[in-house]
Amino acid sequence: MDICRVAILGCGTVGGGVARIMQDLKQDLSMRAGMPVDLIKIVDLNPAESANRHGINRDLFCGTADTITPEEASSFISEIIHDKDIDVVVETIGGTSDFLLDIVKKLIAAGKHVVTANKALLALYNSDIFTTAEASGVQIGYEAAVCGAIPIIKTIQESYSGDKIQSISGIFNGTSNYILSKMKEEGLTFDDALAIAQEKGYAEQDPTYDINGYDAGHKLLLLIKLAFGLDLAFEDIAISGIEDITDDDLDAAQELDSTIKLICYAEKRGEKVFATVRPMMVKNSNFLSQISGATNAVRLINMYAGEQILIGKGAGSLETASSIVADIVFLARNQGNNFHTGDSAGVSLMENDEFELPYNITFDLDDVPGMTGLVATAIGNQGINIDTVGHNRHNIDRAVFPVATMPCSMNQIRAAIDDIEKKRPGVYLNPPKVVPILF
Ligand code: NDP
Ligand code: HSE
Fold first, then answer.
1. Ligand 2 mean position to 323 CA, how many Å?
2. Range 216-225 burial, b when 16+ CB lie within 10 A, else e
């Protein structure tokens, strides 16, 4: 290509940001790409509102009416698929519908490079999309799909191609981090904090995925493929979200000099990979405890380069759009060069419950003599080394206290919890809350 002609499908929060940056930085982008980079078409259901909201030239939108029907949009998209002049298509409609997958596959088959922020689609149809793209000689740019503005994809693809990544961890979902931060720092309710995150454009169209950890899981899956060459089915990753985190949990964590965060964690040991997304009690001495609002952070441990930390905006219109535009420039500048998509080397997933981490277990029991001893003995009997037993927050007739362990497996913890129940049936007033500790 000697001119990079771009179309955008879906001009909402992210797509609108892309159009805006492409319009504002047209000259700079062309200079950096070594060729003109022209945004030539946009398809959106609400052209008038979208043009107005993002300050974009109305003429770029397909259709002259203020709104168009989904059928009309499909027909415009079909024209773009068959338009030989269009080289790169930005997909920012979002979702994982068959309709969208079909569009992406048709674009690839038609020889168009696709740039997308859609981590859900890429995580669910990863091999399918990347294999088809490779066969068709086109590339999939997805920097924006993982941690918004943070250049983690190219960092792994390019900057660490001379190294071996050993672990990836961090905060990959802006909305859930925003909610936890606002609950802790400003005393907002879960629902109020979520509503603000939605207003600010951080949340997914269906925020369930932000809250239940799936969105973070989609991103972790993409990084695991890239860093460790492991193709995972999404359901292989053990995921839990922040839906059950209460003010009490946040306060209890603070008493233990920790902050609860939704953490993505993947570590490669030998040929096995441990991967999980779940709330963790992050020690306040760990930088992740300070990552507030919609900010994301990625921590890489490399064999040779050691620890690297990337921190930046994980969501938002222009923040995410900047990564998409960078992919467009990269594609234009490096046409013909494939993005590196991960080495496969017979790596497989580790049995999750065998991986050892330090845990905090909060017990809620009858407040009668012998309880602390019963708990400590059962934990010790499973070969778990106790780090500390926290103070008992006697709550009327209940004993509520945390036990922090040295690294051990969930299998050991489960056995201890079962043993306590066996020795004293009905002892638990609430099921013990088990949260990994991140130092
Ligand atoms: P939005 O809902 O803001 O934007 C989607 C846009 O697509 C809307 O304008 C929508 O119109 C339009 N649209 C829907 N159906 C069609 C169709 N059939 N044809 C043409 N246009 C259509 O979502 P976001 O911009 O927030 O998200 C887009 C993608 O980016 C998602 O995959 C999301 O996961 C990802 N992402 C989002 C981030 C963020 O900060 N928001 C950050 C990183 C990734 P209408 O509104 O009228 O339905
Ligand atoms: N909903 C996502 C988040 C958008 O809050 O992180 C960025 O991927």
1. 14
2. bbbbbbbbbb
What's the predicted TM-score (pTM) here? 0.95
Beta-carbon contacts of residue 182 (< 8 Å; ≥ 6 apart): 188, 192, 193, 196, 293
The secondary element (H helix, E strand) that includes residue 310 is: strand 306-313
Q: Is the pLDDT of residue 336 over 60?
A: no
Q: 263 C-alpha vs ligand 1 centroid, how far in Å? A: 25
The answer, yes or no, to whether any atom of ligand 2 lies below 6 A from the CB of 148, is yes
Q: What is the pLDDT of residues 136-179, one digit of tens each?
A: 999 999 999 999 999 999 999 999 999 999 999 999 999 999 99
State the closest ligand 1 atom to the C-alpha of 17, by its place in the atom list counted from 1: 25
Rounded to whole angstroms, how far apart are CA atoms 188 and 352? 34
Q: Is the pLDDT of residue 395 over 90?
A: no
- 37 φ, ψ to 5°? -115, 110
Give the distance, in angstroms, between the CA of residue 234 and the centroid of all CA atoms in the same chain: 13
Identify the pLDDT of residue 185: 95
| 341 pLDDT above the threshold of 60 | no
State the pLDDT at residue 340: 58
CB 174 less than 6 A from any atom of ligand 2: yes
Annotated catalytic residue within 41, 112, 184, 219: 219
Strand order in the sheet with 140-141: 37-43, 4-9, 88-91, 113-116, 140-141
DSSP code string of 215-271: HHHHHHHHHHHHHH-----GGGSEE--STT--HHHHHHHHHTTEEEEEEEEEEEETT
Percent of the chain with pLDDT over 70: 98
Which ligand does the CA of 294 lie closest to?
2
- Return d(Cα 132, Cα 134) in angstroms, integer: 5
**Residue 55: left if φ>0, alpha if ψ -120 to 50, beta else—which one?**
left
Give residue 72 CA to ligand 2 midpoint distance, Å.
29
Among the listed residues 287, 323, 297, the one whose alpha carbon sits nearest the alpha carbon of residue 151 = 323
